[in-house]
From TrEMBL:
UniProt name for this protein: LCP family protein
Keywords, ordered alphabetically: Membrane, Signal-anchor, Transmembrane, Transmembrane helix
Similarity comment: family membership: Belongs to the LytR/CpsA/Psr (LCP) family.
NCBIfam families: lytR_cpsA_psr
Superkingdom to which the source organism belongs: Bacteria
Amino acid sequence: MNISRENIKKSKKKTIARILLFTLFFVGLLGAGFAYKLYLDVAKATDKMHNSISRTKSEKREEELEFKEKDPFSVLLVGVDEREGQNSRTDSILVLTVNPQMKSTKLVSIPRDTRATIVGMNKKDKINHAYAYGGIEGSILTIENFLDIPIDYYIKVNMEGFRDIVDAVGGIDVNNKFAFELDGVYVPEGAVHLDGEQALQYARMRKEDPNGDFGRQKRQREVIQKILDKGASFSSLTKYDKVLKALEQNIKTNLTFKEMMDIQSHYKSAAFNVEQIEIPGEGKIMNDELWYYNVEEKDRKALSNKLLEHLHLNKSVANQQEVNTAQKDIITNEKQP
């Protein structure tokens, strides 16, 4: 039986097409399997990171927060210097307010030496001491009181484990304005690739920075952004297991996996417009002969109003909640022997 060349060509094309379709289908299955495994691994890691607090809602909110309704929310991000044999204090304090309707995020840096009322201690002290007195919940309450806004969620990063996170994403690239050495680690000037140890010192150094704590805050924000950018890259995705391990060992948060997924689904637009805010103030040595960063009341209120507006909250509601809380504290103190 004679087979024409045209039929042979058609047969070859069909065979090639079948092979191509099979290959695409197989690759698709592998991709789906990888995506599913990644989903499960991320869920497992976030479960290990999850650490709830005693309350379910801030007293400065009247209604429950609904991610599906795209309600604006706030997050306290703290870096805790948990060195062995020392009292832990917050080395860095950042507050984010996220508004998907305005497609914006505000990032407030609070100097760790800011003089503020430590909730539960009934005294003024450096705001980073709130963690030493009352842990993460003490920090949340103190910062809520200082900014007069609800703190809906927190993320706590162990600064000592910070290097592991940077190393897990393959290091980060920064443009260092001046060379310095801290704790035996040298960071050269200019465009430089930092490993975990160098990035840790880059985020910590302040004494050699002419801008002091403000310079350090800026570098901390830079390092966080670089980690996020690097973590979202394909190269990091191929070694995601190392990234997840570093995160689960060094991060605690009251955000659940479902809440993280809701934020990812409904709040993407807010990530493209980030306003960084520094609190105006002045350094002073007070009666206890300690140096504090003092913020004028008018500046504190102006910042509070700006954040409340961004959170779509009525200022009078927050103020009334503060009055209610103060009254509760008075009643509690009266009951104490």
